[in-house]
Design brief:
Blueprint (H helix, E strand, L loop, with lengths): L8 H7 L5 E5 L5 H9 L5 E4 L3 H14 L8 E5 L2 E3 L6 E4 L1 H11 L6 E4 L7 H13 L3 E6 L4 H8 L2 E5 L6 E5 L13 H15 L3 E5 L3 H10 L6 E5 L5 H8 L6 E5 L12 E6 L2 E8 L2 E8 L2 H9 L7 E5 L21 H10 L14 H13 L11 H6 L6 H9 L3 H15 L5 E3 L3 H10 L5 H9 L7 E3 L1 H17 L13 H11 L4 E5 L4 E3 L4 E4 L10 E10 L8 E10 L1 H6 L4 E10 L2 E10 L2 E9 L5 H10 L7 H18 L9 H11 L23 H10 L3 E4 L2 E8 L4 E8 L18 E6 L2 E5 L1
Parallel strand pairs: 1-7, 1-8, 2-5, 2-6, 3-5, 6-7, 9-16, 10-12, 10-13, 11-12, 13-16, 21-23, 29-30
Antiparallel strand pairs: 3-4, 14-15, 17-18, 19-20, 19-22, 20-21, 22-23, 24-25, 25-26, 27-28, 28-29, 30-31
Helix pairs in contact: 5-11, 7-8, 11-12, 14-15, 15-17, 15-18, 21-23, 22-23
Keywords: ATP-binding, Helicase, Hydrolase, Nucleotide-binding
Protein name: Putative ATP-dependent helicase
Organism: Pseudoalteromonas tunicata D2
Length: about 775
């Protein structure tokens, strides 16, 4: 069978190895299947596929086409599963697997490396491209359907090869309230059902519906059950049977409900209609953490999705948004919108560090700095950016550096096991379980795990203890247990079959101690929680019951019209009481007040976390606290009465004097001045104040011989007949404002009643009324 990509075969073979090749071709052109076979003529080929389903499906397809067993001539490698040998000529592998191979032997087993579907711009493929460019030891091929090839060719000093895909006309329709309506989730299932009814009557073959994630797929499927079709889910966690049904034509008409996994790489036979929700799951950086948001797609993705309808015949595309919806042009590269911790640690393990690599686009400086700081804090990298032994141990694990760090720092073997099992469940990129809606199941779960703790439930699920009381995705749980086995082995922990019992409270306290930013304080008024940087609300499937505080170990963000409308859901929560946070020393402490008690100075200490006072306590002031406490008592006129006002006036005059003499320095506040003076005087207790007078606190800015005349010329307070006023000097504006304080006089003061203030305008202000005095 002839494919569009065949038109560049001779040029490809002639150019391979002479310089990097950038192959630009539309989806369906055959680039993912033809290029590896051509490149294999000159040696072993490694094809890097961003998605696991595409990786396994392409290997299986080419093995069948070559009439050889999978793993013989053609094989694949994904996490926990591989089918290839040392003699396999073509190996399809996911980026994470290839990165580990690169660290081990720089991919010396392969002559050609193909980075397929590079336009998806994952951080790991960006890193692999930078590493391969620096290493410069392979015949490099980069393929893309939508990428601007010129940018990549310039970056690699490569050659662009272009093949036009086979494309049939596609009728475009828009189901939206107005032409600029953006994609949204509101009444999504109902709108998909309406579009499917149109497609079933007007299209001839199978229907492909693009949705954001598994939850949407499941919900929409429940609304389409009555249709006379075969409903096929297709997402990252689909089982082998669903994948086979989605990838191969069936005797019964199909509606394939897919995530954007179906945009590229995979060929879905028999589809002539696409229904596009315009939604996808996309990572974003929020408060230094990578969160997964529900987001609108880019124009590039919109075109990719529509193109699926015209692969083999004229097609129909129904978009559930407006024709002129202001979509972004291109999906930003993942490295521009996620935490760079994993990328920095990966580059460090590869040797040389991330600073030694040249990327297609410069990495965000703030994200890069934050990643380095966090990895340094957990001793994963050194000051030069190289991986430590600890970092090399953490990198291969299927968990982020924070969770790996927590496992390392658990104080006992039992807690390390518990943290390892929790991290394993959190590492699965889909929902492992849902809480049952049946009352008897809820009651049984609460009896077995009475603390309303998601973390405790996660560990119990990994260990097989509560599967009867929750709805479990068996494939996801199996993957989580595989992760648990791998993590336990990496940390030399006992096998999963022999887990140690642990104390829930001890686990929570250890996590809070070593990862304080995971602590969130509950705000009853807003029914939300905050750690001072990020605000979250408990997800519906969390067991958290609005207690005072919680650890949050996983989040998911829902898209909004703006930052303020966006919501971040807390998915894995573990309640902790305020008293324990205070006892663990995780709060910021400050003196909130002071009091005199039997001639002893006491301070009221506020323990604050995330801007909220969790506890207060009264105690005798220590020598270090005494100046601050005494300062507050002076402000309250409880000791040295009149001193606070005197210093306040002296500082105002001092500032005015400096302005008039063009000698401006930063003056302390009244509080700062008195506190420093008390420190200098070495006050040791309340009795010492009996030995002090106001003269011990003089502000020495105005020369003594000028002081009396100056303060008389520029008074701060005036007592006039039936009128008391304060005086504000705004010398920059050449203005004096006289403020009403008290008195029975209704009219403004007369000019002759006031000081001369030559060269300055004078205004009188009472409440909101302001008049000029002439």
């Amino acid at each position: 069978m002839t494919l569009p990509i065949d038109s560049i075969k001779d040029t490809f073979l002639h150019s391979l190895g002479k310089q990097p090749l950038i192959v630009s071709a539309q989806t369906g052109s055959g680039k993912s299947t033809r290029l590896p076979l051509w490149a294999a003529q000159s040696g072993k080929v490694l094809v890097i596929e961003p998605r696991r389903i595409a990786c396994t499906a392409l290997a299986q397809y080419l093995a069948e086409q070559s009439n050889s067993p999978l793993g013989d001539k053609i094989g694949y490698a994904i996490r926990f599963e591989s089918h290839f040998s040392a003699d396999t000529r073509i190996v399809f592998a996911t980026p994470g697997v290839v990165l580990r191979w690169f660290f081990e032997n720089k991919l010396t087993d392969y002559q050609t490396v193909i980075l397929d579907e590079f336009h998806e711009r994952r951080w790991d493929t960006d890193l692999l491209l930078a590493l391969l460019k620096k290493h410069n030891c392979h015949q490099l091929v980069v393929t893309s359907a939508t990428l601007h090839a010129e940018q990549l060719a310039s970056y690699l000093s490569g050659k662009i090869l272009t093949a036009k895909g086979r494309s049939f006309p596609i009728e475009m329709r828009y189901h939206a309230a107005d032409m600029r309506q953006m994609p949204c989730k509101e009444k999504l299932a109902e709108r998909v059902l309406q579009a499917c009814n149109i497609a079933l009557s007007e299209a001839r073959a199978d229907i492909l519906v693009f949705l954001a994630g598994k939850a949407d797929i499941d919900f929409v499927a429940s609304k389409l059950m009555h249709l006379p079709v075969l409903l096929v889910p297709l997402h990252g966690g689909s089982d082998a049977q669903s994948q086979t049904i989605a990838l191969q034509s069936q005797s019964k008409r199909r509606i394939i409900l897919a995530t954007n996994i179906a945009e590229t790489s995979l060929t879905l036979e028999g589809v002539d209609c696409v229904i596009d929700s315009g939604l996808e799951k996309r990572t974003h950086l929020r408060a230094g953490r990578t969160v997964l948001d529900l987001d609108t797609i880019s124009m590039d993705s919109s075109m990719q999705r529509a193109g699926r309808a015209g692969r083999t015949s004229p097609g129909l595309c129904i978009r559930l948004y407006g024709e002129f919806a202001p979509l972004i042009a291109h999906t930003p590269a993942e490295s521009q919108r996620c935490s760079l911790n994993e990328m920095v640690l990966s580059a460090a393990c590869a040797g040389g560090g991330i600073e030694q690599l040249d990327f297609l686009e410069p990495l965000p400086a703030s994200s890069l700095l934050l990643a380095k700081q966090q990895l340094l804090a957990i001793n994963a990298i050194d000051q030069q950016g190289h991986a430590t032994e600890h970092g090399k141990r953490l990198y291969p694990l299927p968990i982020n550096s924070d969770l790996a760090h927590l496992i390392t720092h658990m104080p006992t073997n039992a807690l390390r096991q518990a943290m390892a099992d929790a991290a394993a469940l959190l590492a699965v990129p889909k929902q492992v379980y849902q809480l049952s809606q049946q009352l008897e199941h809820t009651q049984a779960l609460n009896e077995q795990l009475p603390h309303h703790c998601d973390l405790e439930l996660a560990i119990a699920l990994i260990r097989g203890n509560v599967t009867d009381w929750v709805k479990v995705d068996d494939d996801a749980l199996q993957e989580a247990r595989q992760f648990a086995v791998q993590i336990r082995q990496a940390f030399d922990l006992p096998p999963l079959e022999k887990p140690a019992s642990y104390q829930r409270s001890a686990l929570i306290e250890a996590i809070a101690t070593h990862l304080p930013r995971a602590l969130f304080i509950h705000n009853a008024r807003k029914n939300s929680l905050s750690n001072g940087e990020l605000e979250v609300i408990a997800a519906k499937h969390s067991r958290f019951n609005n207690q005072s505080a919680a650890l949050v170990l996983d989040t998911f963000s829902l898209a909004g019209k703006g930052v303020k409308q966006a919501k971040t859901l807390a998915l894995c929560m573990a309640p902790i009481c305020n008293k324990r946070i205070v006892a663990l020393g995780l709060c910021t402490t400050k003196i909130e007040g002071a009091e005199l008690d039997n001639n002893e100075i006491k301070v009221i200490i506020a323990h604050t976390f995330a801007g909220k006072v969790l506890a207060t306590q009264s105690q005798l002031a220590t020598p270090a606290q005494l100046p601050e406490a005494a300062c507050q008592l002076i402000a309250q006129e409880l000791i040295l009465p009149g001193l606070w006002q005197k210093i306040t006036h002296q500082l105002l005059w001092a500032g005015l004097y400096q302005q008039l003499n063009n000698c401006i320095t930063t003056l302390p506040t009244t509080h700062e001045f008195i506190a420093q003076a008390l420190t200098d005087l070495a006050i040791e207790g309340a009795d010492d104040f009996e030995l002090l007078s106001a003269d011990d606190f003089a502000v020495h800015i105005i020369p003594e011989w000028e002081y009396a005349d100056f303060t008389e010329k520029y008074p701060l307070y005036l007592q006039l007949p039936d009128l008391h006023v304060t005086v504000e000097y705004q010398l920059v504006k050449k203005l004096v404002v006289v403020h009403y304080l008290k008195g029975l006089r209704k009219e403004a003061p007369k000019r002759w009643e006031l000081p001369s203030w030559s060269g300055l305008k004078i205004r009188y202000k009472k409440a909101s009324k302001e008049v000029e005095i002439r």
